[in-house]
Amino acid sequence: MIQRFRLLLGATALVLGAQASFAAEPIRFALCYDLTKAYTFVTPQFAQAAKDYAALTNLRGGIEGNPVEIIVQDHGNEPQRGIECYERVKGQALTVDLLSTPVSRAVLPRAMKDGEVMIQAMVGRGDAVDGEVFNWVFPLGPTYWGQAANIVGHYKKQSGGSLKGKKIAFLYIDYPFGQEPIPVMQELQKREGFELQLFPYPLPGNDQSSAWSQLRRFQPDLIVHWAFSAMHVVAAKEAKRNGIPLERIVSVNWLNDVDIANIGAEAAKGIRRATPVVSGTDHPTIKTILQELYDKGKGSGDRKLVSDIYYALGLATYSTIFEGARLALKNEKAPLTAAKMRKGLESIRDFDAAGLQPALTVTGKDHGGGGKTRIEMWDGSKWVPQSDWSAEYADLVWSTVKQHSGEFAKSAGK
């Protein structure tokens, strides 16, 4: 059966086989990822974490006695290839994870029509946390709207509870990912009375000089930066060139240790980021993975990637997905179906993956789990938490979610 499934998926599929000692039918999860083009700064860590966690789960007896298989294929960030991958795995895997906004948007209508569980962690439509409209889509984390609100809320607390008279710059890569938080930032400006200016820069993000020259003249108290990968390195150089301290910058979650190394550990001191997971290798599950897999030569990738924040994000995502499968098996019994998996995910209550993430509660109404993040600062050698987990301005964030999901529902005839 496994051999036939491999042939069905094609040579590019990477299957983590279940142990021969299992008698139960394997539970399969599909990762259709961009492993070759735009998202290669994050997809290897996510896939590695999912495979490692599946291997560890199998060593512990599987999910309620069922072995786990992880199938990984490359879609190259091409929507049509993503659709093709989805069509191959639907009905075979309990979930399909795209980890790409354009591919997620292309596949979403099919998953909704087919009744297949689609994972949309940290990418895709922000309004997909609305489980009443997107009932088969599970972001399992904060929206970008929520992240922006949480950053502003943290700064308000730092400022003694008032933002009146403060200047906030929104610096961003000028395409949909970077543009998405703008409406929330503008609503927060109206509510809190701070001065807001927008500073876009063009793709691919290596020319930010004009934005930073204008930003220097604005003299902001806070810079909220929406970027990823090498864009952070360019931004750090431009900040230094324009005499702006990195301590004023708070980034969206896509800032990792590779970026810090490219900036320079000492030069990056003071920069901050929002994050939905803890960083480092002190977490008990990561320690166990290192001991049980990597120390024994059984890890699924480069050991140094295990310390990456994106590995932790992948691990938290698949810890949550596996918890949904466990609850589905406990409540609905085998064999699992997409409908049972959906119910399992919507049964998750206060699940923090042993402290790896803020406690998530996923319901039929909220497929995001609560939207909590915290702020971390780079101190020259490590990331140091600057806040507790929180979800700020929830009314504003959900108003934005409902506005967009309502428009989708109307266009889809729901």
Q: Which structural class best describes the helix and strand composition? A: alpha/beta
The shape is: globular
Mean pLDDT level: 94
Q: How many strand units? A: 13
Proportion in β-strands:
5-15%
Strand order of the largest sheet: 8-7-9-10-11-12-13
Summed up, the helix count is 14
| Unreliable residue runs | 1-20
Q: How many strands, what sense, and barrel or not for the largest sheet?
A: 7 strands, mixed
Give the SSE layout.
Layout: H1 2-9, E1 14-15, E2 27-33, H2 43-59, E3 68-74, H3 79-89, E4 95-97, H4 101-114, E5 117-119, E6 137-138, H5 144-158, E7 167-173, H6 176-179, H7 182-192, E8 195-201, H8 209-218, E9 222-226, H9 230-241, E10 249-251, H10 257-263, E11 272-275, H11 284-292, H12 309-332, H13 338-345, E12 374-378, E13 383-385, H14 394-412
Description:
This protein is α/β, with parallel strands linked by helices and 414 residues long. It contains 14 helices and 13 strands. The strands form two sheets. Strands 8-7-9-10-11-12-13 form a seven-stranded mixed beta sheet, sandwiched between helices. Strands 1-3-2-4-5-6 form a six-stranded mixed beta sheet, with helices on both faces. Helix 2 links the parallel strand 2 and strand 3. Helix 2 crosses helix 12, helix 5 runs parallel beside helix 7 and helix 9 runs parallel beside helix 10. The protein is globular.
